[in-house]
Amino acid sequence: MVVWYREIFDEDYLRVYGPLFKPERTAKEVEFLLGVLALKPGASILDLCCGYGRHRIELARKGFQVTGYDLSEHLLGAAKQAARESGVDVKWVHGDMRDLPLVMVAERG
Predict the structure, then answer these.
(1) What architecture (CATH level 2) is domain 4-108?
(2) pLDDT tens across 37-87, in order?
(3) CA 20, 62, 92 angle in degrees (round to 5)?
(4) CA contacts within 13 A on the Cβ side of 71
(5) Please, which of 9, 43, 52, 102 could form a disulfide with 39 given CB 3.0 to 4.6 Å?
(6) Which value, to the nearest 10 degrees, does the dihedral of the CA atoms of residues 48, 53, 55, 61 take?
(7) Is 79 helix (H, G, I), strand (E, B) or coil?
(8) How far apart are CA 72 and CA 80, in angstroms?
(9) How confident is the model at residue 9 (pLDDT cuts 50, 70, 90)?
């Protein structure tokens, strides 16, 4: 059975949509999130459906403890590579958010 989200978030996703998400846009989005959420420095963040990690990497650069959780192994691979290249420490977890282990939520709470 073909599942739409497995078909969309593959290697073509980055090729088609990656160029639309410039670093300046990501930085503005992260600043907005930090302003709205009023997170304290060093706070833990669990990002569901993190994709290729553009927000997670920026948050990690700012000193947050970030876990990225995504179903797409391809996008997680790209995220891991980007984090290495950026020199940031991000935990990446492969999984379906609909089956998120409760222990993971408790660890980040």
Answers:
(1) 3-Layer(aba) Sandwich (3.40)
(2) 998 889 999 999 999 999 999 999 999 998 999 999 999 999 999 999 999
(3) 70
(4) 14
(5) 43
(6) 120
(7) helix
(8) 12
(9) confident
Rounded Cα distance between 101 and 45, Å, is 16
DSSP state string for 9-53: SSHHHHHHHGGGS-HHHHHHHHHHHHHHHTPPTT-EEEEET-TT-
Domain residue ranges in the chain: 4-108
3-state secondary structure of 105: helix
Q: If we measure between CA atoms, which residue out of 69, 61, 64 comes closest to residue 26? A: 61
Q: Please give the mean pLDDT across all residues of the chain.
A: 86
pLDDT at 106 over 70: no
Threshold 0.90, pTM exceeds: no
Q: Supply 50's token pair.
A: 């993190």
